[in-house]
């Protein structure tokens, strides 16, 4: 491959990973692998500057999404140069010493929090807006989600606040909360988040703060952006106690060091302590302490010259890949799993690791019998990083993903837009078992007497092949099963009978429509109010629902088009299952407690109609914009009210957005 080809291929690869990391919060590779790609690209571009011109990687990664309004940062939010090597860290110090002609430089060493950067603007002590880093120049407005974090003060404590100040920090999700959410997702067979950072990144970009509230976000602050008037500080170390005195959550610990050797000691101490912190840390940030020196050394377009991140290498271990097994999910997805010779890694014994999908196995050329490297970085779920080719036996061949389902032998299929192979056989035993388990689970029909052991017995005895068969069970059938006393049989039958009256969203979720979780089921039922209406919904109807995009809509349409599912629903209905949404779900006041101001001409509604709709949903309409206004509903030719709302950072919506709010 020529240098040109390699540069182009690296540019494309980095751009793809940037999108996965910054916009989709679903990276496919570890930070270490990503940094390695970027370093190789930077080196090649330095050798071939003529090819670097078109590089898509010159800018800082961009997290902005179309659904959000973005606003400029008063001071750009830069990134940090980073290194994994002690030598390069000492080079950073040597460079600064040469530049500044100073013998020993004082530093502050801080934990590097592995979260999502945020910038809060306070004016006269009042919170005006919260922005993501965006492209560094402009960030997305995530105020609605930041307001769900109790630790973020709407007004700063104490007196004497700057007229306007940007406060910089990191939003994160604690390990405990991460595990809670992943457990819930596991129960719903939704894809798991690989690490707390991805979950935090996905959560700050939710459109509905009610959803955000269900996942507890946390935040910690470590710096200032623009500040007017400038605070009379001489050192960066003064920032932390000041932020604390304003009532903002700050770092658990930071170190002041008189030179780079003391900074290194602090980094090692941090490495020993960081496991006890509530946030995940992926390194240390070393910052020059005297602020006068920041101005002197300045910054590049991407990062300040007065700071560097030293990243801790992810913990890795070598072990034998004994086998690759295939798990069959409820919807037939075939997931490859690495079965490992147990190995100790980051405090736990690891015997299985995820391999994601067939493409990943092919890309990394992973073969059973290989010695492989497993890694647990911020990731709670270990992954296979690479194979050690030197330790491979001479006669192994590339792994072939099975062409048939390992459970029922049906030919596997792969839809063009999907990474996963699936078993298309609805009668595949592990799928039946998982479908019934999902139906009975707490997040669906909540039938607690129908646990794994009972489901296994029912499916093995072929008493249940579909969820509808549950409602044909008789006491006589059940008592023939091992360890099934008449009392247990009666309890199960009663629980099944009671489940018929469940709210409709539980049944809809229990049907197991791919890509439809419990929240989407609730949203769908609130909107359509009956199973019949949902069954006949068009794609356009479905797309009006917040949170239902083209993939979910297609999934719903395909599910109801399938004759087997139509029969299933007919049977469930004939057994007397409730197919209507409960009354209280329909009557919820979606705009309860929110105040609106109207301005300009709306495309279809008159002002009176808009006012009536808002009031019917529990909101109120007031005449003029103030800090207390929640939303400005703006149409064509909006005038001074729009300007005032923009100045106060009030959320501005149009008629379409109002309709979406009313429908949610
Ligand atoms: S200072 C001008 N300090 O790491 C640069 N950043 O990889 C200001 N981060 O964009 C950043 N912990 O989002 C700083 N103690 C810390 C940090 C920290 C985490 C994040 C921040 C930055 C990214 C760079």
What does this protein look like?
The protein is an alpha+beta fold and 664 residues long. The chain is 37% helix and 19% strand. Strands 12, 13, 14, 15, 16 and 17 form a 6-stranded antiparallel β-sheet that branches. A 5-stranded mixed β-sheet has the order 2-11-10-3-9. Strands 5-4-7-8 form a 4-stranded antiparallel β-sheet. Helix 1 packs antiparallel against helix 2, helix 13 crosses helix 14 and helix 17 (504-510) crosses helix 18. It is globular, with a radius of gyration of 28 Å. The two termini are 53 Å apart. 2-(butylsulfanyl)adenosine binds next to strand 3, strand 8 and strand 11.
Record keyword descriptors for this entry:
664 residues, 26 helices, alpha+beta, 5 domains, 37% helix, D-amino Acid Aminotransferase, Chain A, domain 1, 19% strand, OB fold (Dihydrolipoamide Acetyltransferase, E2P), five-stranded mixed beta sheet
What's the CATH C level of the largest domain? Answer: Alpha Beta
C-alpha end-to-end distance:
53 Å
Mean pLDDT: 89
CATH architecture of the largest domain: 2-Layer Sandwich
Number of strands: 21
Protein topology:
Layout: H1 3-23, H2 31-47, H3 49-52, E1 70-72, E2 82-83, H4 86-100, E3 107-113, E4 116-123, E5 126-132, E6 138-140, H5 143-146, E7 164-172, H6 175-187, H7 196-204, H8 209-213, E8 218-228, H9 239-245, E9 255-257, H10 260-273, E10 281-288, H11 291-297, E11 307-311, E12 315-328, E13 333-345, E14 348-354, H12 358-364, E15 371-376, E16 383-387, E17 421-422, H13 429-440, H14 452-460, H15 475-479, H16 486-499, H17 504-510, H18 518-528, H19 531-535, H20 539-543, H21 550-561, H22 563-574, H23 583-586, E18 595-599, H24 607-616, E19 620-622, E20 631-634, H25 640-648, E21 651-653, H26 655-663
Parallel strand pairs: 2-11, 18-19, 18-20, 20-21
Antiparallel strand pairs: 1-6, 3-9, 3-10, 4-5, 4-7, 7-8, 10-11, 12-13, 12-15, 13-14, 13-17, 15-16
Helix pairs in contact: 1-2, 13-14, 17-18
Bound molecules: 2-(butylsulfanyl)adenosine (IVH).
């Amino acid at each position: 491959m020529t240098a040109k080809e390699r540069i182009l291929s690296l540019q494309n690869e980095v751009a793809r990973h940037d999108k996965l990391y910054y916009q989709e919060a679903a990276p496919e590779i570890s930070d270490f692998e990503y940094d390695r790609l970027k370093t190789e690209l930077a080196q090649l571009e330095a050798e071939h500057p003529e090819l670097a011109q078109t590089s898509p990687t010159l800018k800082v990664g961009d997290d902005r999404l179309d659904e959000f309004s973005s606003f400029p940062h008063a001071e750009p939010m830069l990134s940090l140069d980073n290194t994994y090597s002690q030598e390069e860290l000492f080079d950073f110090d040597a460079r600064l010493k040469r530049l500044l002609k100073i013998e020993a430089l004082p530093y502050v060493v801080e934990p590097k929090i592995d979260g999502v950067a945020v910038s809060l603007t306070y004016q006269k002590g009042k919170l005006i807006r919260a922005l993501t880093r965006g492209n560094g120049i402009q960030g997305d407005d995530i105020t609605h989600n930041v307001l769900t974090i109790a630790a973020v003060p709407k007004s700063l404590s104490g007196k004497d606040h700057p007229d306007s100040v940007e406060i910089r920090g990191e939003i994160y999700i604690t390990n405990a909360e991460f595990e809670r959410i992943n457990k819930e997702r596991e129960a719903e067979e939704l894809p798991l988040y690989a690490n707390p950072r991805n979950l935090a990144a996905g959560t700050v970009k939710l459109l509905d703060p009610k959803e955000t509230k269900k996942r507890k976000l946390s935040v910690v602050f470590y710096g200032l952006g623009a500040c007017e008037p400038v605070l009379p500080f001489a050192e960066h170390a003064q920032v932390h106690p000041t932020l604390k005195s304003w009532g903002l959550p700050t770092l658990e610990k930071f170190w002041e060091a008189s030179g780079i050797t003391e900074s290194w000691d602090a980094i090692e101490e941090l490495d020993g302590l960081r496991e006890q912190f509530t946030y995940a840390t992926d390194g240390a940030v070393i910052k020059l302490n005297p602020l006068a020196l920041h101005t002197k050394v300045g910054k590049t377009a991407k990062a300040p010259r007065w700071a560097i991140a030293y990243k801790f290498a992810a913990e890795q271990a070598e072990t034998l890949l004994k086998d690759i097994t295939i798990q069959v999910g409820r919807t037939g997805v075939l997931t490859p799993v690495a079965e490992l010779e147990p190995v100790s890694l980051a405090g736990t014994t690891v015997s299985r690791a995820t391999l994601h999908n067939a493409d990943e196995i092919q890309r990394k050329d992973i073969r059973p019998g290989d010695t492989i490297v497993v890694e647990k970085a911020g990731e709670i779920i270990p992954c296979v990083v690479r194979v050690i080719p030197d330790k491979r036996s001479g006669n192994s061949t590339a792994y072939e993903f099975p062409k048939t389902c390992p459970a029922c032998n049906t030919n596997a299929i792969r839809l063009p837009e999907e990474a996963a192979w699936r078993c298309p056989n609805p009668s595949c035993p592990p799928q039946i078992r998982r479908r019934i388990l999902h139906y009975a689970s707490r997040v669906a029909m909540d039938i607690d007497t129908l646990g794994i052991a009972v489901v296994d017995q029912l499916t093995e005895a072929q008493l249940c092949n579909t969820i509808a068969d549950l409602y044909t069970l008789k006491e006589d059938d059940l008592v023939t099963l091992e360890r099934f006393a008449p009392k247990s049989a009666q309890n199960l039958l009663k629980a099944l009978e009671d489940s018929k009256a469940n709210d409709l969203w539980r049944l809809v979720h229990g049907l197991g429509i791919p890509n439809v979780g419990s929240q989407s089921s609730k949203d769908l039922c609130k909107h359509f109010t009956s199973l019949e209406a949902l069954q006949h919904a068009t794609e356009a109807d479905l797309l009006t629902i917040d949170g239902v995009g083209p993939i979910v809509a297609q999934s719903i349409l395909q599910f109801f088009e399938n004759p087997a599912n139509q029969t299933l629903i007919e049977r469930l209905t004939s057994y007397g299952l409730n197919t209507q949404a409960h009354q209280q779900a329909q009557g919820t006041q979606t705009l309860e407690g929110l105040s609106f101001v109207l301005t300009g001409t709306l495309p279809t509604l008159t002002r009176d109609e808009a006012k009536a709709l808002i009031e019917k949903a529990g909101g109120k309409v007031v005449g003029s914009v103030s800090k207390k206004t929640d939303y400005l509903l703006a149409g064509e030719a909006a005038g001074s009210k729009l300007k005032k709302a923009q100045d106060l950072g009030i959320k501005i919506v149009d008629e379409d957005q109002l309709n979406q709010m009313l429908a949610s």
